[in-house]
Write a structure and sequence with these properties.
By secondary structure, the chain is of the alpha/beta class. The protein has a single domain, classed as Alpha-Beta Barrel (TIM Barrel), CATH 3.20.20. Helices cover about 40% and strands about 15% of the residues. Strands 1-2-3-4-5-6-9 form a 7-stranded parallel β-barrel, surrounded by 5 helices. Helix 5 packs across helix 6 and helix 7 packs parallel to helix 8. The longest helix is centred in the middle third of the chain and has 21 residues. It is globular. The relative contact order is 0.16.
Length: about 240
């Protein structure tokens, strides 16, 4: 079994350190680097790109809402035109660090609330897909499996990776459980392993109400800010990437 394992990294900023970036990079195949709006700063972006190139990883931009205090996880009312501009701006910022160090950007994955909004809002999804396409039509767009975002990417002509989540629970409509609820994140390593294997081998996941949902698993996300992230990454890397 071999599948892409991705992780959101580069989310420290200023004096605040978040995650175990360098250690996590040993156990994933793709990373999504915060672009300064929800997390990250220019120096963190620069160092994250350097480390990713040393580990020969696929480097993706991880643009989010302009909400540093809320870590980009709070819903904000933005227009499709605003979404287009903020995606384009953030991709350009990260790409400057990637190309200046001799690398090539691989993909784009929206962050947090923006990701979840685009999963259900067709106009927002189209604006994001268009921004990616206009920047570089060879980039891959990561989106929630079976969502409006993946459909928008496919419709505009982008390569799309249908993403599933190792450590998140699902609702019956295929959306991720809101982080405001206590059961949104899985912390038990065995439970995470069981869910991932089911998603990859059977292309299905069990929702919080016990319903079996069909999904497409092109890439598996493990969150770097999960308390057990490093242990989970080692376990999943051995299962999926070796």
């Amino acid at each position: 079994m071999k599948i892409d394992l991705n992780c959101d990294l580069g989310e420290s900023f200023g004096a605040y350190k978040l995650g175990q970036d360098e250690q996590m990079m040993k156990y994933v195949s793709s990373i999504n680097i915060a672009c300064g709006f929800h997390a990250g700063d220019p120096l963190v972006m620069k160092h994250a790109v350097q480390q990713a190139l040393q580990h020969n990883l696929n480097i993706g931009a991880h643009p989010g809402l302009q909400d540093l205090q809320g870590f980009g996880r709070r819903m904000m009312g933005i227009s499709p035109d605003e979404a287009y501009a903020l995606i384009l701006y953030q991709i350009g910022a990260l790409n400057a660090f990637v190309t200046s160090q001799g690398g090539k950007l691989s993909h784009v994955k929206p962050h947090g609330a923006l990701y979840n909004m685009a999963a259900k809002d067709e106009d927002l999804a189209h604006a994001i897909a268009k921004a990616v396409y206009d920047f570089d039509a060879s980039l891959t767009l990561f989106g929630l499996s079976g969502s409006k975002l993946t459909s928008a990417g496919e419709n505009i002509g982008l390569k799309v990776a249908h993403e599933v989540f190792a450590d998140r629970t699902y609702q019956s409509d295929g959306s991720l459980t809101s982080r405001s609820l206590p059961n949104a994140v899985l912390h038990d390593k065995d439970q995470v392993e069981e869910q991932v294997l089911r998603m990859v081998e059977k292309q299905e996941v069990v929702s919080t109400n016990g319903e079996i949902l069909r999904i497409q698993a092109d890439t598996v996300c493990l969150h770097g800010d999960n308390d057990a992230a490093l242990e989970l990454a080692k376990k999943l890397f051995n299962l999926l990437c070796e």
